[in-house]
Write a structure and sequence with these properties.
It is a single chain. The chain is α+β, with helices and mostly antiparallel strands. It has one domain. It contains four helices and four strands; from the N terminus they run αααββαββ. The protein has a four-stranded antiparallel β-sheet with strand order 1-2-4-3. Helix 1 packs across helix 2 and helix 3 packs antiparallel against helix 4. The two termini are about 20 Å apart.
Length: about 110
């Protein structure tokens, strides 16, 4: 999938800086070609829970933002992310004190 298609799938406006950021993330994420389609599918599933896959503004990785409301929904999204990570062998890293995860790459 091309960088502009990834941006559109994630709901971003296609700009030169966003395209460059996606390319940097692709280069920094091991096995990205394998996980990209799974990442888009996860994004689509998370949207029903007010959560998403997004570009990180602080690190060169995609991030998964769990913005669900209520303890039960937050836990449901956490489980969804965990199962997704295990199923597709994607290494993620939880951000301390936040419901955010960095997508580090294919294990």
């Amino acid at each position: 999938m091309k960088n502009d298609a990834i941006l559109r799938q994630l709901g971003y406006t296609v700009t030169n800086s966003a395209m460059a950021q996606v390319q940097t993330i692709r280069d920094n994420t091991g096995g990205f070609d394998y996980i990209e389609k799974h990442l888009i599918t996860l994004h689509d599933q998370l949207q029903a829970h007010l959560s998403c896959v997004a570009l990180s503004s602080s690190k060169d990785f995609f991030k998964i933002k769990n913005e669900a409301k209520g303890e039960e929904m937050i836990a449901e999204v956490q489980e969804m992310i965990s199962k997704w990570s295990e199923k597709y062998k994607v290494e993620i890293q939880k951000v301390s004190n936040k419901e955010t995860y960095y997508v580090l790459g294919y294990k």
